[in-house]
Amino acid sequence: MLVNIHVHKKALLLSIAIVLVLPLQAQIWTLQQCLDTAQVNNKNLQISKNNVLLGQQRNSEAKSNLMPKINALADYKYYTDLPYQLIPMSMFGGPEGQFKENQFGVPHTINLNLQFSMPLYNPQIYGAIAATKVASELTQLQYKQTEEQVFFEVSNLYYNAQIVQYQLLYSDSNLINTKKLLANMQLLKDQQMVKTTDVSKISLQAEQLTTQKELLQAKYEQILSLLKFSIGIEQSKPLEIEPKITYIQTNEYQSNQPVESKIAGTRTKLLANELRTLKFSRLPSLSLYGTYGQTGYGYTEEPNEFLNFYPLGFVGVQFSYPLFNGTSTQKKINQKKIEVQTGQLQQNLIAEQNAMQIENAKRQKNIAQRNVAITLLQIELAQTVYKQTVLQQQEGTAGLTEVLLADNALREAQQTHLSVIIEYLKTDLELKKITGNLTSKNF
Question: Are 429 and 156 in contact (CB under 8 A)?
Fold first, then answer.
């Protein structure tokens, strides 16, 4: 069940403070709206999407190597010197074992051919198809990892902005109290009941609180600027975040395999596929090929000028089997086996580390969840003490030192409360991430 952290009278003050701090025309964005916008507009996610598409295209390219290929070839030769051939003189009644050189052919030769080839069986191609398929799966997981990183960053910025809003609220409340105290001290000084230095101390505290508020406002605007950049909207666009901080009063999330573990497993799978491809390189390959074309012979000298074309065509099957290429293939196989073993160890390490992180995050979240309620009660108690001390000071039964101590105690309680909220939100985000629930719509 979603529960508001501050279910007490400060909710009204917070609403008033937010109206004063933020532009009236700004649209209120929930965290889920910020995450949805980042999923569409964030540049890192868009780049990662392109990498996914690129991986799919590479897989399609690998599959296309199984398709037949047809090439058109054209070739023209002009022989400045015709090639020589040796003719046995015995063909013309001459002695055996003696030859006579002679030039054959015509000076102009033209070849126009269509060449066809198609692999019937090639283990290297099948290995490449399997490898690009696994690589495509890896890019999809990397997109998921980038998405989680963006969600984590946007959520952190959003929570930081909410925390600064509460700091601004406390700063306004403390400044109001200090100004009231300053007015009372000024009246007492006019009646010569307190020293001038007492008034100066309160005046200094008011100035410090004013400066603190200005710094917090600048910090808030800086966080909003970073948030706009992360979700991919223009800096000039007004943005107001939801002022209420909500949290789920449970530390139970559905346990899913984290994306880091999936990436490690896919990389190991890719290495295993590369190992199989290396082993397949020892297998024979079989391909079908053929050529059809025309060969033209031309002669330009009179009286027998001509250019005649003659057909040429054949088909064939080519078988290739690697007999020996040294020991390089075996050494590559040995190296890849070590890489596969290392990948499996990394996968196991990530799984064990993830289980440990889940348990630690659950414990820290439970502690922070309890401390949120405790520190809220401490704030209420500190406020009561401060009001009583101020009243006693006005009645003359308490001095300025007691008032300042009560004021410091109140501010310390407020800061402790905010620190606990930050710790809770941080551990909750981390728990969502390591349980694989960060990108689910559970905010």
Answer: yes
